[in-house]
Amino acid sequence: MSATVELTRRQPASLPPGTGNSRRLNRRWNHRRRERLYQWMFLVPAVAYLALFFGYPVAKNVIMGFQEYSTSTFYTGEAPWVGLQNYVTVVTSSLFTTSLVNTALFTAGSIAGQFVIGLALAVFFKRKFPLNGVLRSLLLLPWLLPLIVSSAVWRWILDKDSGALNNFLGGLGIIDTGVPWLTSTSLALAAVVGVNIWIGIPFNVTVLYGGLQDIPDELYEAASLDGATGWRAFQHVTWPMLRPVVSVVLVLGVVYTLKVLDIILGLTNGGPANSTQTVATQSYALSFQEFKFGEGAAMGNILVLISLVFAVLYLRANRRAVDE
Hints:
Blueprint: H1 2-10, H2 19-64, H3 73-76, H4 85-91, H5 94-125, H6 132-138, H7 141-144, H8 147-157, H9 164-171, H10 188-213, H11 217-225, H12 231-258, H13 262-267, H14 279-288, H15 293-323
């Protein structure tokens, strides 16, 4: 009898059915809750930052575009609602067509120059030669310099009387008198486009060079067996494989170029005679020179809409590139 009692004491009490499964489910549920908590801990600061420094300014600018917002508003706190009057004013202005055309010319010229030169340099640097990495690193300098510094340096280079470019061309006997690169209505826009091309080349080279590195060498070897070398290899191998990257580079370049402000202000301030006035500089002039904040916001919103179109194109091009 005593032996039976002892064995009964040693035997563990039977657990209710399903207790082990319940504990495992609870552990999984707690693990998922912790993971979700960690995700929100990382997500909330990013969302707050975007809402504060991007969402609020954009929303405020949209609202200002429908208000008569002036310097007196800062004292009275009142900005009467005027509806679409600001948009009508800026669109019917004599400078709107000029700024729109200049923006199109500035963007098209800059993108074309940056892409062609950037692609040529990317193909050149794909070859292995001494100091390849050093030269590619030095090529990034225009991209790393602050834009206001670049504009100050180029303003000195392009100066009519004491500029380095005119002195160089005069020393070669190409010109007899100084060329008014920044003070001529027929040359100023071209000069500004040239400076912006110089600034944008490193971005194009960097992205396109990365795209070229992803093209397998086996494709070029197979193409050479069929007689496709040089330009034919570029046409039938390089360009088709690089096309997704090209679409992304072009669309991003357009979005970046549309909002260029520092370079134009530093070189010409929109002159001479509004020959380099763009939508971005006109928005800046209306807001911070004429203090017509409502009209400046309306012009800025128009620029945002134009940029948004190309941003949508970029997203589609990027999705297509990922799919391919």
